[in-house]
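User: Second chain of the day. Same drill as before.
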Amino acid sequence: ADSLYVSEYFSQSAQKLSFYSWYGNAKLFHFRVPEDTVLLRWLLQASRGKGPECTNMEITVHFRYGAPPVINPLGTDFPANATVRPSYSISITLSSAVQNTTFVNVTTPAAGDWFIAAHLPEAAGRIEVKGFSTPCPYMFQADMFVLRLADMPVLEPGVAMPQTVVSPAKALHVKVFVPKHTAVMRLELRNCLTSEQKVCAVRIVLGSITLPQSFQRIITCVGKVNCSLALDSPPWDKWLQIMVESLGAANASVSMEMLASFRACRPGSASSFLNFSSLNQSQTGPRPGSAGAAGSPPLSTGETSRNTSDQRSFCLQTQPVVREDLDVVSVRYRLLNGPSVPVNSLSPTLLLLSLNTGMDSGGSLVVNLLLNKTSVSLANATVVACVSAASPVLSLNATHNCSTAFFQGYPLRVSTSSLEAMLIVLYPQTDDWFLSLQLICPKGQGECNAAEAKVTVFAYLTPCFNDCGAYGQCSLLRRHGYLYAGCSCKAGWGGWSCTDVTKAQSVSAQNLATLLLTLSNLMFLPAIVVAVYRYYLVEASVYTYTMFFSTFYHACDQPGVAVMCIMNYDTLQYCDFLGSVVSIWVTILCMSRVKKILKYVLFVLGTLLIAMSLQLDRRGVWNMMGPCLFALVIMIAAWVYHGVKRRHCYPPSWKRWVFYLLPGITLAFIAISVYAFMETNENYYYTHSIWHVLVASSVAFLLPPRDKHKKPWAWSQKLTCRYQICQNDREELYAVT
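Assistant: Same format as last time:
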């Protein structure tokens, strides 16, 4: 009946999309699908602004179950030994319509975490000054509708349960719980008949859909009364959903008996006493006189032979592993019996790597195997390993296939010719992960029944593999309460872990960029000399301050290896921005020729207001344009006042206009145009250097001449006395009578 189904709706707030340059530009949505869901529908809504800057745009949306999608819109390289499986994605086009609504349906989805990532095309790389241009807002919102069965029938192991498919339009949904250590699950359909007592035609779907890859098992039972299917290594400790669809006539029902049975795998492991002893001594360190760092006492010869004979009765050998949480998305797995694990050919050795907290899928799982060459007695023997989620691979020696019932694992292999192997799983899905190892001989298993190999296992979860290298920065990203990490590359390097050298800058190019951005500030020296020569000492001090902090800020701001920071980066940036704006402020006020007392009051008051505005918004365009416009108003008002008072154009000299003011104004306008409209990430080092040169040169031209009553610096006249380097001035005192 319809009342058996319950519909639920989940929504998250819309996010503003960004053009893609690294993973942090992709907007992530995190949902959790409840158990017994039979239908999942995504409602994807994309919209854009209505301004003229808004153009046709294509939005890419990626889906993944269990972890954030691993995407590569730029086509860059992934690190070596990394496993990459393409994500499931769709494109949404915003053309003439302001809004686009798209539906995506998923039948029988897997319960748990689902992630959606959306982004715009590749970023153009242009550096836009905040306030000069208004970017078009592109918004994206994802909503989730689920339809779940309130009372889904449960199959009990070993008990035949009669079921009925009412019609082809309505499928039958049942579920069965798969216990831990299940090696094989077998599903049987018995006495499958229609309501007309004919042989049924049904389709059976085992498992749920997971994106980007789905490993559902499908049986088509046509013309048979009994059908069966066996699953090797089904997911442990999980509910397995089974759907039965009728392929017969529309008005005919189908009845059957369903039977689920399991074959368990008997695990063998070290004794609990040894495990606790190892855990205790590994935390406190080896005691004096102990047998080894692992803390396990040596076994006698009889115990060793008895353990070897017992291995034949076990289908796997488990090694105790401790999960040690180090930080956010940072976990280390420690083997209690030491980093080396014994591997034989009789049964696989199993290690559990727990990643089921819900907060572990935002990093990278790294598994490193190192074979002890002296431990292998057979030169041609190979240790085959498989990393899988949900359930382990239990038959490595039979087919060499690294796959379970619903998961394609990641194979590894070490031998005497290749002693080391590494695997990097990017954004591993939330689940229990297993590492299976087994010794394989090329001439058959009988050759290495008595052989054993020692393999050192290093396994850990890290936010970013290799910390993004020398040319990347590992950034911790957040979506609501979910944390994940991504690499932001620099100096032209690219890729998931900043290992792609396609557009990387060479060391010489990095040195050249640093020299251009720092040495171009020396163009302030002419302006400083002119200011000192004309007795503008306060202005010269401001230019010196600007030159110093701009030089060392750009020396610290470099993305590559040519970096030198004399103090905190944020402090250098603030001082550079403050000096740049105050230099423009004092230069224009100096050109206005107001009274000295008023000029210095405006110097101090303007500097304080500029410091406050930069603290509020350091990159706002009005932090520079505001003081410039206000100072220009003061300068124009002062020039008009001087011109009216003298009844002559001010400044009065045509030479002053032609040789100083017009060149200085031209240089300033060119500098502003380069700064606001020409800078990109690729040409920044020379366009910004041009900005330094043009601004500093314009200051030297725009500074007004010195006051007429002041004499030029005449050092030779001031140093005429042999014993004193000062000049005595006589003051006339007048008595008032």
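Confidence is low (pLDDT under 50) at residues 271-309, 715-720, 727-737.

User: Great, on to the next one.
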